[in-house]
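Hi V.,

Quick status before I head out on leave. The structure for the redesign project is tokenized and pasted below; the design run finished overnight.
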């Protein structure tokens, strides 16, 4: 099945059923995947527990999630559990090309005979390429779609829902889009519709569920469930305690500064850093910046999070209070225009601005580009100086998209092991219940959440205390857990 050529010339190889930047990077990728495996005890334990029984046999799984080394370990775990997998990235800048190459090549493949998993991703995709690659990852043989999706941010889920809607109402593809990204998506859906007007109808008849990785994707799912438009059961992986209270917090605590440092090499100590949003991600960012000696200012809309920040000793202010003083601005809100174009134009010259939240609209990049007379000077990939007509400038990282994945390697493997162990457990649950469950959004049971944590204790030499029968009885608990009620907040 082939589509019209894209308006952009793809830099990727197209041999075989995959598209990666450079297959010759596969050996390097494989060595680094092997290093990552040592730091991902949760996923390796699942391979050991379920590898023999192959509980995902027969499942066609599409992943739309950053194509990194850690994701490579996730992909190969799903395959070892029996699934047939296709993969694309959920962010145009986050692919690690050596990881993608190793996945395409496979452990037993060679450059002449790749034997890996069909992966469609490279670092620095255009928006048109992004949607094309996602589209390719949703195409299994025989014109079939996936049974299950691993989504991060909700784009795969969005493409299917919107595509299906457009099959009934093609005029909606002519609507004016709100962003360049949406324009590219609508363009892609139009091509697909012209090629195969029943593609999404066929896809949804065998689509049994989605597990969603991140906060923003979960918001989208809840919105669809509330409107009654959600087509499948969804598992909110983000709100497993062993995901959001670890990946979002401890992951960002390490990968934010990794991104800023690789991009700019700036000395953080002594600087004024403004962190917009004090949720899980913001808490991790603020802590790492303070740890390195920055003076941290937090902005918040929620009085509880604002009070938490104040009690942690951070000054809580409005962005506009610190525009002329802030040296580093970071958005971690999941919201649009946390920093507006006008605010960007009023910042102290030389301020570093980046986003670790979601997408490219936490910072109003579209508005920045529209400022009359503004000039973009590229320093290196994912680092730009934006020079205002009066000569002042800001340094923008990763074009306002995730700085830790655009300018660095994302979170360390160990914390991703916890997130991805939840992902595999969610996929197992969705597959096991595929004929029974109805659309809706839920989290994994606390018992499994505790199990994910348990699988990571040995690696850190943790010795866990065990309740004896009298203590368990006193607390009204089973000695094996769960240890907290569902409403406990950690
Ligand atoms: N880069 C990464 O590796 C990574 C990892 C996990 C999550 N995320 C993304 O980061 C974002 C935040 O995730 P989270 O788990 O911290 O969410 P969260 O809901 O816990 O925190 C977001 C916080 O931002 C605040 N906020 C919202 N709008 C604001 C505004 N305009 N100004 C100031 N504060 C505002 C909210 O009150 C909230 O406290 C999400 O988009 C999520 O998808 C990124």
């Amino acid at each position: 099945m082939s589509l019209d050529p894209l308006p952009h010339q793809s830099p990727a190889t197209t041999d075989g059923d995959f598209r990666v930047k450079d297959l010759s990077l596969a050996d390097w990728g494989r060595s680094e995947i092997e290093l990552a495996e040592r730091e991902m005890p949760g996923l390796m334990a699942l391979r050991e527990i379920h590898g023999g029984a192959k509980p995902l046999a027969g499942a066609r799984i599409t992943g739309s999630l950053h194509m990194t080394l850690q994701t490579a370990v996730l992909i190969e775990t799903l395959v070892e559990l029996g699934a047939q997998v296709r993969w694309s990235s959920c962010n145009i800048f986050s692919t690690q090309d050596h990881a993608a190459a190793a996945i395409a090549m496979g452990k037993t493949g060679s450059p002449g005979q790749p034997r890996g998993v069909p992966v469609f991703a490279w670092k620095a995709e255009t928006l048109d390429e992004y949607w094309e690659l996602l589209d390719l990852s949703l195409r299994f043989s025989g014109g079939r779609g996936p049974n299950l999706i691993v989504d991060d941010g909700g784009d795969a889920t969005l493409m299917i829902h919107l595509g299906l809607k457009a099959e009934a109402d093609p005029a909606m593809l002519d609507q004016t889009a709100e962003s360049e990204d949406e324009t590219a998506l609508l363009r892609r859906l139009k091509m697909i519709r012209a090629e195969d007007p029943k593609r999404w109808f066929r896809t949804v008849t065998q689509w049994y569920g989605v597990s969603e990785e991140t906060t923003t994707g979960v918001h989208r799912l809840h919105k669809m469930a509330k409107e009654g438009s959600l087509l499948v059961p969804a598992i909110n992986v983000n709100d497993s305690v062993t995901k959001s209270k670890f990946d979002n917090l401890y992951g960002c605590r390490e990968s934010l500064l990794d991104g800023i440092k690789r991009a700019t090499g700036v000395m953080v100590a002594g600087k004024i850093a403004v962190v917009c949003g004090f949720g899980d991600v913001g808490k991790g960012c603020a802590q790492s910046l303070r740890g390195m000696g920055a003076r941290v200012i937090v902005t918040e809309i929620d009085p509880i999070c604002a009070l938490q920040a104040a009690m942690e000793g951070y000054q809580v202010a409005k962005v506009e209070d610190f525009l002329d003083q802030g040296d580093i601005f970071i958005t971690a809100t999941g919201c649009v225009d946390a920093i507006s174009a006008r605010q960007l134009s009023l910042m102290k010259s030389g301020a570093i601005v980046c986003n670790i939240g979601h997408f490219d609209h936490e910072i109003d990049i579209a508005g920045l580009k529209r400022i009359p007379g503004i000039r973009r000077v590229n320093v290196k990939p994912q680092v730009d100086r934006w020079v205002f007509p009066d000569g002042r400038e800001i340094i923008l990282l990763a074009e306002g998209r995730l700085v830790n994945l655009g300018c660095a390697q994302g979170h360390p493997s160990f914390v991703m092991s916890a997130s991805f162990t939840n992902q595999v457990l969610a996929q197992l649950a969705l597959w096991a219940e595929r004929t029974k469950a109805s659309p809706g959004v839920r989290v994994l049971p606390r018992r499994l959440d505790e199990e994910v944590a348990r699988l990571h204790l040995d690696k850190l030499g943790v010795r866990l205390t065990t309740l004896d029968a009298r203590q368990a009885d006193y607390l009204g608990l089973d000695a094996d857990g769960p240890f907290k009620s569902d409403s406990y907040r950690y």
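Above is the designed sequence. The two ends are 50 Å apart (CA to CA).

G. will cover questions while I'm gone.

Best,
W.
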